[in-house]
Design goal:
By secondary structure, the protein is of the alpha/beta class. The protein is built from 7 helices and 8 strands, in the order αβββααβααβαββαβ. A 4-stranded parallel sheet has the order 3-8-7-4, sandwiched between helices. It has a two-stranded antiparallel sheet with strand order 1-2. The chain has a two-stranded antiparallel ribbon with strand order 5-6. Strand 7 (about 170-175), helix 7 (about 180-190) and strand 8 form a beta-alpha-beta unit. The longest helix has 13 residues, at about 115-125. The protein is globular. It starts with about 25 loop residues before the first helix and ends in a 12-residue tail after the last strand.
Length: about 220
């Protein structure tokens, strides 16, 4: 029904004056308020490797409700636009496989889905690359809501796939703040033989540390 296509961020209806909503339902006003993310420095991994990171939106009050709607509001159609836009930041020729940094099992059960997986599948479709789960998150302690100092250690992942030797993997997540989650994921993938090509996120803060050391 028509009200199912209201903007998932501000609630603007699809009818009335002004441009029509896109297939993701995001209204032009919400889009116009967003600003591109600043350049994110590469993350330094615990084994000495580096992970390039690219981000779509600046970490501010305009982008926050968009990511929260995808993350906690079941607004999965937002992943259409975010996935296409994030894919434009990546050269498909450098990617063999798209994966994601999984949320905690408890968060997945509560939401009924993993927002990072939803976004990764849209990115993979836009890049015309396969999408596959490669990581298992151990424990139910989420990064969201914790103090920055507590987030620095990052979550703990273990590999799901053991046949990744030489595979160039693109890691997708929704937000990068300290970089601990992406660094932990990339470190595990490297130990499994993969080549983490880069990480792409929907939203990034300019406080991300390019010298972060994180392992799993």
């Amino acid at each position: 029904m028509w009200f199912d296509l209201d903007c998932p961020v501000c609630g603007a209806p699809p009818c009335g004056p002004g441009p029509h909503l896109g297939d993701d339902g995001l209204c032009p006003a919400c889009v116009a308020r967003c600003r591109p993310a600043p350049e994110v420095p590469p993350l330094r991994l615990a084994d000495g490797g580096r992970l390039p990171v690219v981000a779509l939106l600046e970490y501010d009050d305009a982008s926050r409700p968009i990511v929260l709607a995808l993350k906690n509001g079941n607004a999965r159609r937002l992943a259409r636009r975010l996935g296409r836009s994030v894919a434009l930041l990546t050269d498909a020729r450098d990617v063999d496989l798209v994966t994601w940094a999984p949320t905690t099992p408890a968060r997945r059960r509560a939401r009924g889905y993993d927002h990072a997986e939803v976004l990764a599948r849209r990115v993979g479709a836009a890049l015309d690359r396969p999408v596959r789960a490669t990581l298992r998150r151990r424990g139910d302690r989420a990064q969201q809501g914790r103090h920055r100092a507590d987030r620095q250690a990052g979550p703990v992942f273990s590999p799901l796939a053991l046949d990744l030797a030489g595979t160039r993997v693109l890691v997708v997540d929704d937000v990068v703040t300290t970089g601990a989650t992406l660094a932990a994921a990339a470190s595990v993938l490297r130990r499994a033989g993969a080549v983490p090509a880069a990480a792409v996120v929907a939203r990034a803060t300019d406080g991300t540390s390019g010298s972060l050391k994180a392992g799993a």
